[in-house]
Amino acid sequence: MPVIRTELLISAPRKRCFELARSIDIHMESTAKTNEKAVAGVTSGLINVGESVTWEAVHFGIKQHLTAKITELEEPFYFADEMVSGAFKRFWHKHEFIERGSQTLMIDTFDYTSPLGWIGKVADVLFLEKYMKSFLLERNLYIKKVAESEQQES
Fold first, then answer.
1. Which of 4, 13, 67, 119 has the smallest C-beta neighbourhood within 10 Å, fewest atoms?
2. Alpha-carbon torsion 19, 23, 29, 35, what sign?
3. CB-based burial of residue 67 (10 Å sphere; 0-12 exposed, 13-18 middle, 19+ buried)?
């Protein structure tokens, strides 16, 4: 059961970062290289507690579907989503936003279990944990880029 934790300091207000992280549209832009698209549930705009989204994406050359539901949300401090169905055995993903003066510390905690028992554990060690950390960091760097560029225009 790997737990991936990333921290990223963003030069933008907490509420702006919080909203960008909940944006279905920003998620699709940030994951364009895996052709990630919202195909059911909330498919654009901001997702809220109790709502779900089904993503279609290509990972490792395989088209996959994953449904996640927002199970916790306290605006603008944090929200968490959990897998309802998909390739993982399970996952829980918490997004936290902490004010640091005029900046926001965005903390991402992704706690997951791979499917297939010991085969999944071997996959974690060989490539999956590294792949997921890179995927999450790339998405968060995109949020940072958008938050900071739009902040400068204000």
1. 119
2. positive
3. middle
Tens place of pLDDT per residue across the chain (154 aa): 899 999 999 999 999 999 999 999 999 999 988 889 999 999 999 999 999 999 999 988 889 999 999 999 999 999 999 999 999 999 999 999 999 999 999 999 999 999 888 888 888 888 989 999 999 999 999 999 999 996 544 3
What 8-state DSSP symbol labels residue 67?
E
Residue 86, both tokens: 């998909």
Beta-carbon contacts of 43 under 8 Å, excluding residues fewer than 6 positions away, are 24, 53
